[in-house]
Amino acid sequence: MELRHLRYFRAVAQTLNFTRAAMQLHVAQPPLSRQIQQLEEELGVALLERSRPLRLTDAGRFFYEHSVQLLEQLERVCDDTRRIAQGQRRWLGIGFAPSTLYGALPEVIRRLRSDGGIELGLSEMVTLQQVEALKSGRIDIGFGRIHIDDAAVVQKVIHQDPLVVALPAGHHLLGAAVSMEQLALEPFVLYPGNIRPSYADHVLQLFARHDLKVRVAQMTNELQTAIGLVAAGIGITLVPASVQRLHRDDIGYSPLLDPLATSPIIVSYRAGDESALLQQCLTWIAELAASASASLAADVQAEASLRHRPVAHQTSEL
Questions:
Q1: Stretch 271-293: mean pLDDT
Q2: CA distance 26 to 13
């Protein structure tokens, strides 16, 4: 199947007349009819009822609706590609780890989208994948949480997100500051499980720093899945404090006693990339990260004040 088959079928479906469709396409009618027959043979279905008047079959209506969307999307891509090549539009590829969406990233995206001359490409990927995508040119900037040593990529920490404990509703550790020793006694949901190095290694190192081991009850690859498993009572987990903005009735959060238990938000970009669009984006990120940090602190303080619960006795840390 080739693009001309889709374009020819679109013209026939819109005019319901081979003669008018051929004139619209500037082709002779017999070749047009053969192209439609080839398309039907490849699909193994009849797209048209060749009666008078010409009509689309049910399969033809379905194929028309979806093929038109594909053609329109392709035409937009081609138009934007030409504009980018001519300097009329700029393209910026952004890779992001899911948990970074709770910080300044959404506002950065909103600002970029408000500029009609910028075309954004958004890709969900962990930091390791971002580094490879930066080196291959698939993205221009990444938002993640893991340090990756690579001379081809610059990484900057824009915010240190305190870690908090996500607990199921009614858990005995809710409402009190929690020590790492207490966490080590609880079943733990670790994420992401398959892609390493990752946030999971950061959590494991935090326990190791206290000479503790994690009682892994379940491993998963997604933050949202981990939160759901916590709500189901499978275990507890550690999440960046910004995730507390995701309000759920079946989940609660408690702070950690360890002030060094944080998760950085890291911006990555290609070394030597001095493009004006990237520099503008980095300026916005610095401004918004500071604002988001202040907003998060206020949100966390407000939520904590609503609980009105005493802080548990602090266990001495190793």
A1: 83
A2: 16
Q: How remote is the C-alpha of 249 from its chain's centroid?
A: 24
**The predicted structure's pLDDT at residue 230:** 96
**DSSP-H helix ranges across the chain:** 3-15, 18-25, 29-43, 58-85, 105-114, 127-136, 180-184, 199-209, 223-231, 276-307
* Sequence-distant (≥ 6) Cβ neighbours of residue 135 within 8 angstroms: 150, 152, 153, 270
Specify whether the CB–CB gap between 117 and 80 falls below 8 A.
no
Q: And the tokens for 103?
A: 């910080």
Instruction: Please tell me the predicted confidence (pLDDT) of residue 126.
Output: 87
d(CA 48, CA 9): 10
Whether the Cβ atoms of residue 151 and residue 130 lie closer than 8 Å to each other: no
Cis peptide bond prior to 53, omega within 30° of 0: yes
Tens of pLDDT, residue by residue over 200-222, are: 999 999 999 999 999 999 999 88
Domains and CATH numbers, the chain: 3-85 (1.10.10.10), 90-156+265-297 (3.40.190.10), 161-263 (3.40.190.10)
- Exposure b/e, 201-211, CB count within 10 A at least 16 = b: ebbeebbeebe
Question: What are 269's strand-pairing partners?
Answer: 141, 154
Gap between the Cα atoms of 281 and 100, Å rounded: 16
Written as one string, the DSSP assignment of 109-140 is: HHHHHHSTTEEEEEEE--HHHHHHHHHHTS-S
Residue 23 pLDDT > 60: yes
Mean pLDDT, residues 84-90 taken together: 66
